[in-house]
C-alpha cells in the first residue's frame, strides 16, 4: 500500500481523507492544515493524525494529496515533488500557467508521477461513452450551479467550466485555433456567468456555458459527430447515444426512418451503454495508485491539467477582448 498524506482539510479535503482511509490502495498516514486549531478538531472528531509541520508529513508519505485553495497549489506541489513524492493535486492544477509548467518540469526532473483532480473524467456517465466519442464536430456544454460562497475566490471558468474544458480536450484530438468568450460578475468580484466558444484546427466547435448563480443545478454536455449524437448528464449520471445507419430496404413497423431532400433514408437507433455506479473521487485516487504501481501515465496527467488551465486562462483573457 502507498503511504498517503493530505494537505488541506476543508470540505473536499475531508472527503479525500475519508476515501483514502477506505481505499485498499493507500495507507492514510495523516494530514496537514494551515489552521492548527481546526486541524486538531478534525483529528479529534475523525481520528486522522494531524501533522502541525507540513514537511514532516511529506517526509512520512509516498503520495501527497493537495486539496488546498488554488492559490497555494504551486507551493504545496513543489514541496511534494522536490521531496521526491508522487503528487495528486486538485483542479485547477495551479493559479497560473507558468506555475503549472514549472510543476510539470519538476516532476520530470525528480522522476515522480502527478495527477490532476479533474473528477468528471471518472464520472460513470462520461466513462461509459467516452470511447464512443469519435471526431466530434460540435459540442455544447452547460454547467450551472446554485450559489455557494465556496469557490468564489476564482472566476467561474476556473471553478466550474474547467471541468468541461478538460473533458472536451480529452476527446477532441486537435489543437485550439480560436477562443471567444464573455463573462459577467453578478455577486463576486470575478465573473459568475461565462460563455465561451472554442474553435479547433480540425473544424470542431465547442460552446460552453457556466454559471454559479443559477436557480437549479445542471451538468450536461452534448457531442455531435458524423452519424451520431451523444449526450452526457454528469449530475444524473445518465448518457444517451443516438446513431444513424443506412435504412434497410424493408423497414420494420417500429424502425425510426428519416429521409432527406435527396431521398436518402437513414435509420435512427439507440446504442446506450450501461452506466456502472461508482465513487468518482475514489476511482481517480485509486487510478493514480495504479499508475504509480504499474509505471503508466496517469489518466489526467500534469500535462493535461496544464492544457486545461491554459485554455481556461485564454477564456478569461477573452473576456476583455
From TrEMBL:
Organism: Salinimicrobium marinum
GFO/IDH/MocA-like oxidoreductase domain: residues covered: 155-216
Domain Gfo/Idh/MocA-like oxidoreductase N-terminal: 3-118
Gene Ontology terms for molecular function: nucleotide binding
Domain of life: Bacteria
Gene3D superfamilies: Dihydrodipicolinate Reductase, domain 2 (3.30.360.10), NAD(P)-binding Rossmann-like Domain (3.40.50.720)
Xref: Pfam families: GFO_IDH_MocA, GFO_IDH_MocA_C3
Signal peptide residue numbers: none
Protein name in the entry: Oxidoreductase
Amino acid at each position: 500500500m502507498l503511504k498517503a498524506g493530505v494537505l488541506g482539510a476543508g470540505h473536499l479535503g475531508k472527503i479525500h481523507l475519508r476515501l483514502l482511509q477506505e481505499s485498499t490502495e493507500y495507507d492514510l498516514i495523516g494530514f496537514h492544515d494551515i489552521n492548527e486549531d481546526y486541524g486538531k478538531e478534525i483529528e479529534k472528531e475523525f481520528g486522522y493524525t494531524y501533522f502541525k509541520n507540513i514537511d514532516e508529513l511529506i517526509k512520512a508519505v509516498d503520495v501527497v494529496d493537495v486539496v488546498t485553495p488554488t492559490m497555494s497549489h504551486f507551493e504545496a506541489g513543489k514541496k511534494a515533488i522536490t521531496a521526491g513524492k508522487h503528487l495528486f493535486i486538485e483542479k485547477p492544477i495551479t493559479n497560473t500557467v507558468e506555475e503549472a509548467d514549472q510543476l510539470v518540469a519538476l516532476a520530470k526532473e525528480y522522476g515522480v508521477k502527478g495527477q490532476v483532480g479533474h473528477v468528471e473524467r471518472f464520472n460513470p456517465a462520461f466513462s461509459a461513452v467516452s470511447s464512443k466519442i469519435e471526431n466530434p464536430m460540435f459540442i455544447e456544454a452547460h454547467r450551472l450551479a446554485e450559489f455557494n460562497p465556496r469557490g468564489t475566490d476564482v472566476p467561474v471558468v476556473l471553478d466550474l467550466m474547467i471541468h468541461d474544458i478538460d473533458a472536451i480536450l480529452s476527446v477532441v484530438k486537435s489543437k485550439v485555433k480560436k477562443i471567444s468568450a464573455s463573462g459577467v460578475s453578478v455577486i463576486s468580484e470575478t465573473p459568475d456567468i461565462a460563455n465561451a466558444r472554442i474553435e479547433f484546427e480540425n473544424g470542431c466547435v465547442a460552446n460552453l456555458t457556466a454559471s454559479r448563480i443559477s436557480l437549479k443545478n445542471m451538468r450536461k454536455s452534448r457531442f455531435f459527430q458524423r452519424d451520431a449524437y451523444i449526450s452526457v448528464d454528469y449530475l444524473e449520471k445518465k448518457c444517451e447515444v443516438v446513431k444513424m445507419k443506412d435504412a434497410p430496404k424493408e423497414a420494420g413497423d417500429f424502425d425510426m426512418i428519416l429521409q432527406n431532400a435527396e431521398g436518402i433514408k437513414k435509420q435512427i437507433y439507440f446504442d446506450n451503454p450501461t452506466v456502472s455506479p461508482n465513487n468518482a473521487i475514489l476511482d481517480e485516487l485509486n487510478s493514480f495508485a495504479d499508475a504509480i504501481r504499474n509505471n503508466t501515465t496517469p489518466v489526467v496527467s500534469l500535462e493535461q491539467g496544464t492544457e486545461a488551465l491554459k485554455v481556461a486562462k485564454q477564456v478569461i483573457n477573452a473576456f476583455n477582448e
